[in-house]
Amino acid sequence: MYLADYHHHTDNSFDSQAQMKEVCKQAIRRGVNEVCFTEHFSVNPKVPTYG
């Protein structure tokens, strides 16, 4: 079976405290073949997702 997670946030987004390295380690342990990090990002400096 091929496992993938195509929507994961890390502490680069305002709504997560997960660290990218730890997410990857956990994915390997669980047999996940692919992970896509989908961080919140905005070009509007007035919103919390800026930068």
Question: Explain this structure to me?
Answer:
The protein is α+β, with helices and mostly antiparallel strands and 51 residues long. It has one domain. Helix content is 22%, strand content 18%. It has one helix and two strands, in the order βαβ. It has one helix spanning 20-30; strands spanning 4-8, 34-37. Strands 1-2 form a two-stranded parallel ribbon. Strand 1 (4-8), helix 1 (20-30) and strand 2 (34-37) form a beta-alpha-beta unit. The radius of gyration is 13 Å and the shape is elongated. The mean pLDDT is 91.
Secondary structure layout:
Layout: E1 4-8, H1 20-30, E2 34-37
Parallel strand pairs: 1-2
**Class per helix and strand makeup:** alpha+beta
Per DSSP, what share of the residues sits in E-state strands of 2 or more residues? Answer: 15-25%
> What is the rounded Rg?
13 Å
H and E string: EHE
- Count of structural domains: 1
Strand order of the largest sheet: 1-2
Quote the distance from N terminus to C terminus.
36 Å
Shape: elongated
Largest sheet: 2 strands, parallel
Mean pLDDT: 91
**How many separate helices?**
1
* Count of extended strands: 2
Helix content: 10-25%
Unreliable runs:
none
